[in-house]
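Work Package 3 (structural annotation) set out to generate three-dimensional models for the target panel prioritized at the project kickoff. During this period the team completed the workflow that converts sequence records into discrete structure tokens, so that structures can be stored uniformly alongside our sequence database. As a representative example, we reproduce one entry of 380 residues exactly as it appears in the project archive.
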Amino acid sequence: MKKLFAIILGIMFAVTLTACADAQEGDYTYLSLEINPSMEMIVNSEMNVESYSYNNEAAEIVGAGLDLIGLNYENALNLYLNAAVQTGYIDIERNDNAIAICAMNSTEESNTFQLQVETKLQTYFQENKLGVVVLEQSEVMAETKALALQNNLSFGEAKLVQAYLAINEANTLQNGLDMTSDELIEAVKEHQVQYMSEYKATTEATLTPVKAKLTEQLQTKVQAHNQAVLDGTAVQPDTTGVMATYIEDYEGVKSEFVIRNQERVEYANAVMNGLVADFLVGSYIFEESSEELSYTINEESYELNDDGTYTESHSYTDIESEEVTTSDSFGTWALVDGTLVLTSSDEVVVEFTVQGMRISYVVEEDITVTLVRDLSLGNN
């Protein structure tokens, strides 16, 4: 997917909100949000958040410092989405984020609620000029659909059963199938209350610094994006074809965001613990240049070894003469005051700015060339 511009969980970011709704009678509605950061909440009849929980570390990072209890669900969503943008789980530089939602209760009103949530999400992304598509989990979650089909359940009922099974390993599928939607929601709510108490007491303090570091690293870009939105100069990213791509291969597309964000968290931890040099070891390949160069980069790659040496190779084609230049070099590298410094065997020094799994250097007329960690090689 092409990138459109820079600024605010691909989940999952990706981001994905899947909406599923079913009809039957209760005071509570179960709402599941999937971006990559995965979270769920229980909304009461007054449309306020009764309880909520984070289902993976990404969501626990995004949600660190937030208190959603008692808020109108729309305000709660805005707080959570804003945090996802600020930490990069919703990537302002991409047009292929996705968010999937599922709303479920035991009354026909859940269908109306689902549509409301979808509309509010779409409005949020449009107003903030973010490249995010809103998906229905029933369209993209194969495992849940299979469970529904095998047990003659609606998608929403199957989703609730899965939520119940995730609470405790002792919970059995048969017990979940024997319970009503109201009973399942009540069980999930009780678990969320206990989970959040434990999260606030222990996990949150550990992840708050990680969230702060992720936010700090993106602060300039996010602020610039937000200012452009306020000024009316921000452009709505083109998401044509993005939804179809997710529907065709949801897990595959989402996995790119998962890997990318895991790298970002690892880098944040490396910065906080003074281990950036160890983090940088790996292979990097050309990603983009900030402006058009006088030559075309056919290939450019760097290998940073753990012994402080590096190898580099490239192939350039001059735009005017069409002459192809290839070269290989080697030398040593070091991290100096946060800057990656490469010194070739010919004593040529090139300085790189480090941005997580990306490194960049300046060439002619202040044009920036960026290389990205080659994840296909299994680098950590």
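The mean pLDDT is 90.
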